[in-house]
Amino acid sequence: MSKFKKKKSGDMPAVNTASLPDIVFMLLFFFMVATVMRQNTLKIENNLPFADQVEKLDKKDLVMYIYAGKPSANYTKFGKEARIQLNDDFASVKDVAAFIAAERASKREELIPFLTTALKVDSDANMGLIGDIKQELRKVNALKINYTTKKGSVLGRD
Amino acid sequence: MAKRAAPEVNAGSMADIAFLLLIFFLVTTTIETDSGINRKLPPIEESEEDVVIKQKNIFTVLLNGKDQLLVEDELMEIQDLRAAAVEFLDNNGDGSCDYCKGVKDKSSSDNPDKAIISLKNERETTYKTYIAVQNELVAAYNELRNARAQAQYGKSFAEMQADYKDVNWPGNKERLKAKIDQIKIDYPQKLSEVQQ
C-alpha cells in the first residue's frame, strides 16, 4: 500500500533550466551573425522617407553612401539647416566630387562603371541640397543613383 | 598519491554571460535598409540640336515650395497622381499602340513611346514629398508594365524580374531577358527632371 502513496509526496518539481544556456547561445549566435556594424557614425538626423516601388541594392561593396539631413542634437552648433555628411564628417557640396574620386580610386578599375551612389537623405531635408548634390554627381559622371527609402506606403504617413 | 578527480567547473553563470552578450548584440543590431528608388542622372554634355517635343506629349508635374502638386496646370493630391499618369501614358492618341487601353484622346499623348513625364521641383520642396511623387510616377510605369506582361506572358513584370534575379529559377534566362526588354520597350520609362 505504501508503495503507491509514496508518489503523491510534496511540491511541484522545479522546471529544469539546464537547456536555458543553449537557447540563449542560439539567439546570441543569430544576432552575432546578423549584426552589421555601421560603417559611418552619423552626425545628422537620418529619418528616411517611405516608398513602395523600391528595388534592392544588391552589391554592397559597389555602393557609395552620401548622407544628408539636419545636424543631430549633439551637433546643433553646426546649425539647423540640412547638411551633407561624407564618411564620418560634415562636408560641403564642393567635397562631393573629391569623395567620389576617392571612392573610385579604392575600387578595382573594372568595377568603377557599376558603382552606385546611394543618397540617404532625411525626409525633412529640402530639395535644394539634393539638387546641388545631383549636379555635382553629374559633373563627375557618377550617374547611377539610388534614393534609399524605407519600405512602406508613401501616403498617410508623416 | 591517490589520484584526485579534478573538481567540476561551475557553469551556472554561463547563462548570465550569454545573456549579457545577447543583450549587447540585440541593442547594437541595426537592420540596414538598402533598398530604394533607382534613377539615372542625365549626362552633363549639352546636345547641340534642340529636340522638339509636342506639348501634348509632355505630362508636367510641378512641386512647389509648399509641397503642393500641380499636374498639367491643375492642382492635384498625391494619391490621384498615379491614376493620372497611367491615363496619360496609356492614352494612345494616334492609335499606333495596339496594346494600349487608353481613351485615345487627341489632346493627350500620342503613344507610350512618345509620352514624357516632366518633373520640376523647387529648392524648398521637402525630400519626403519629392520621393512620394517619384514613387507614384514609377508606380504608374510599373502598373502598365505589369498589365502588359500579364496579358502577353501570363506573369507580372515584377515576377519576371524576380525570376531573372533568382539563381534557382529553372527556366531559360536569355528568353526571359528578351521578354523583359520587350516590355521595357513597350512602356519606356521617360521621366525627365527639369534643372533649376
TrEMBL record, chain A:
It is a single-pass membrane protein; Single-pass type II membrane protein. InterPro entries: ExbD. The keyword Lipid metabolism does not apply. Keywords: Cell membrane, Membrane, Protein transport, Transmembrane, Transmembrane helix, Transport. Pfam families: ExbD. The keyword Cell membrane applies. It is found in: Cell membrane. It comes from the Bacteria. Its main location: membrane. Belongs to the ExbD/TolR family. This is Biopolymer transporter ExbD. It comes from Flavivirga amylovorans. The lineage of its organism: Bacteria, Pseudomonadati, Bacteroidota, Flavobacteriia, Flavobacteriales.
UniProtKB/TrEMBL annotation, chain B:
It is found in: Cell membrane. Its main location: membrane. It comes from the Bacteria. Belongs to the ExbD/TolR family. The keyword Transport applies. This is Biopolymer transporter ExbD. It is a single-pass membrane protein; Single-pass type II membrane protein. InterPro entries: ExbD. Keywords: Cell membrane, Membrane, Protein transport, Transmembrane, Transmembrane helix, Transport. Pfam families: ExbD.
